[in-house]
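Weekly structure sync, notes
Attendees: PL, DS, HV (note-taker this week)

Item 1: NRDE family protein
DS walked through the input record. Source organism listed as Flammeovirga aprica JL-4. Sequence as pasted into the shared doc:
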Amino acid sequence: MCTLSFVPISATNYIFTSNRDERKSRSSAFAPTLHKEKGVKFLAPIDGEALGTWLGATEQGRVVCLLNGEFKVHIPTPPYKHSRGKVVIDALTAPNVLKYLEDYDFDNIEPFTLIVVENKNSIELNQFVWDGSKKHFSELDSSIPHIWSSSTLYNPQQKEKRALRFMDWLEAEKRSPRDILSVHEGINAEGKLGLSMLRPQYCTVSSTQLEVDAVSVKMIYHDRLTQEKDQLRLPFTIINYESQTGL
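Item 1 (cont.): predicted structure, written out as tokens:
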């Protein structure tokens, strides 16, 4: 929700790791389970207050993650039409996610950044930003790593420094999914890279990692407050995208 990394392994395999940084007083989330809405099966944890989610993966190979905020910090102006967590579920279950984002009226929804990955014949990586008045679409290079930090909790200088340190760490040697998760779960200290937050009012409440290949997604979820860990796997429904597009 507030720190996200994407690390490609091959043309169809990648590692997607998310830290959820929240108020310490916020209700705990429910651990990931298999859900089904609009005929679509997906894995997702569920927020304990708004009952939406910040991250999910479907049986069609779509992964969606939401970060609070847009390009810069904003001043909240509630009440809002609905929670941003509903956007993730709608994006997971939409027949065409980009059409859903183009068509949906996000007026009176708090600003957010949405990362969408489609694992068809190759990885498609898209970023959608709602700044409170305008939609911004970007197609990103899925052959290189990316990292995002929420504008609501990290200023531009902090975001840039975290990104540089993470990329340097990745390039130093071959990193395993376990290595990447350990960095997400670590606290930044002198000489040690860590992406978790520990502030008086906010902290990293959970870390979630998806290991995605051509046939399935494995979700590893770590509740950082209770120290409970869950692991689930969802096989993909086999779809021949080439035959559908006539290519």
